[in-house]
């Protein structure tokens, strides 16, 4: 059975949550690590479900955790949980396959960006709805970036004015994302990369500081601090 939120919504949010999260230290899957007493996935789904445009959420969970994840999320929001794959790209494809054809917009969101606000989700959805085939939220790069070669020798300084740090959710026309996954030959780190490789234009909208990626133990400390900001 397909779980639905807002019947008038035109967005499906796909959440690949089968990753191990090695950089976060020993423990279970990253999406199930605790932030302020609740799994990252719970924080993420709560915020996704609060976005008015979202009709459906599909979580790709570790194969052995599908029932447990479904039970975990049942009190949070209506969610469809499917078995994920060995790689993130495969998990996204399996989640996308669960989306009905009448939902025209698909957003791909990382549970590790557990505090991404509903307003960011709405911004991405609105941009796709306006006619853009693929949209990503970005922030300016604030650090100086060096190009480094063998022996840790600096070869040059990169012009950071043309660089952006990419966040999720990334938004797509559903048919564009499906075609990119169907034609994928090499694994890439994000879905926008697949769409770029397929020759589709990807555009940017402003990201959010709250959509930080929780990757290292220190990130959990920072995220807990952000939770306490009024």
Structural class category: alpha/beta
What is the number of E strands? 12
The name of the CATH architecture is Alpha-Beta Complex
CATH class: Alpha Beta
Distance between the termini: 38 Å
Sheet with the most strands, sense and barrel status:
8 strands, mixed
Can you give the helix content as a percent range?
25-40%
Strand content: 15-25%
Under CATH, the homologous superfamily reads Spore Coat Polysaccharide Biosynthesis Protein SpsA, Chain A
Overall 3D shape: globular
Total separate domains: 1
| CATH topology tier name | Spore Coat Polysaccharide Biosynthesis Protein SpsA, Chain A
Mean pLDDT, all residues: 92
Low-pLDDT parts are: none
Explain this structure.
The protein has 230 residues and is an alpha/beta fold. The chain has a single domain (11-227), classed as Spore Coat Polysaccharide Biosynthesis Protein SpsA, Chain A (Alpha-Beta Complex). Helix content is 29%, strand content 24%. The chain is built from 7 helices and 12 strands. Strands 1, 4, 5, 6, 7, 10, 11 and 12 form an 8-stranded mixed β-sheet that branches. Helix 5 (174-182) packs across helix 6. The longest helix is centred in the middle third of the chain and has 12 residues, at 118-129. The mean pLDDT is 92.
Short description:
This protein is α/β, with parallel strands linked by helices. The chain has a single domain (11-227), classed as Spore Coat Polysaccharide Biosynthesis Protein SpsA, Chain A. It has seven helices and twelve strands.
């Amino acid at each position: 059975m397909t779980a639905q939120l807002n019947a008038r919504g035109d967005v499906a949010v796909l959440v690949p949550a089968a990753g191990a999260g090695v950089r976060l230290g020993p423990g279970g899957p990253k999406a199930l690590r605790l932030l302020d007493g609740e799994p990252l996935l719970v924080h993420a789904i709560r915020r996704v479900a609060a976005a008015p445009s979202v009709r459906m959420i599909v979580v790709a969970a570790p194969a052995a955790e599908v029932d447990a994840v479904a039970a975990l999320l049942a009190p949070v929001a209506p969610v469809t949980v499917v078995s994920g794959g060995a790689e993130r790209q495969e998990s996204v494809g399996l989640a996308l396959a669960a989306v009905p054809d009448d939902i025209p917009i698909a957003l791909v969101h990382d549970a590790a960006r557990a505090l991404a606000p509903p307003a960011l989700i709405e911004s991405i959805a609105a941009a796709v709805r306006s006619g853009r085939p693929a949209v990503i939220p970005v922030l300016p790069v604030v650090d100086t970036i060096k190009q480094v070669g063998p022996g840790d020798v600096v070869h040059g300084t990169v012009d950071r004015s043309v660089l952006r740090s990419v966040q999720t959710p990334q938004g797509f026309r559903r048919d564009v994302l499906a075609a990119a996954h169907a034609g994928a030959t090499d694994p890439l780190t994000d879905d926008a990369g697949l769409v770029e490789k397929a020759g589709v234009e990807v555009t940017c909208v402003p990201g959010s500081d709250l959509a930080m990626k929780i990757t290292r133990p220190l990130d959990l400390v920072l995220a807990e601090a952000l939770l306490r900001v009024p």
